[in-house]
Specification:
The protein contains two helices and no strands. The chain is an all-alpha fold.
């Protein structure tokens, strides 16, 4: 039981939690970064598909 009490006390007294506004700002940054990353992956996927379609047309339908 001592471990649970010590863990609880550490979480309540010793951990410095971010403020709500800081947490919101960080969340927005993560969401924007995720959106940008997903758009980059989408562009890469479309480009690769176009290149491979061209290669398959040049080589014949294998």
């Amino acid at each position: 039981m001592g471990y649970i009490k010590d863990s609880y006390r550490e979480l309540v007294e010793k951990v410095s939690w971010p403020s709500f506004s800081s947490l919101q700002s960080s969340t927005v940054v993560v969401m924007v970064a995720s959106l940008i990353f997903s758009l980059v992956v989408l562009v890469m996927d479309i480009s690769f598909e176009a290149v491979m379609s061209g290669v398959y047309k040049l080589l014949g339908n294998f």
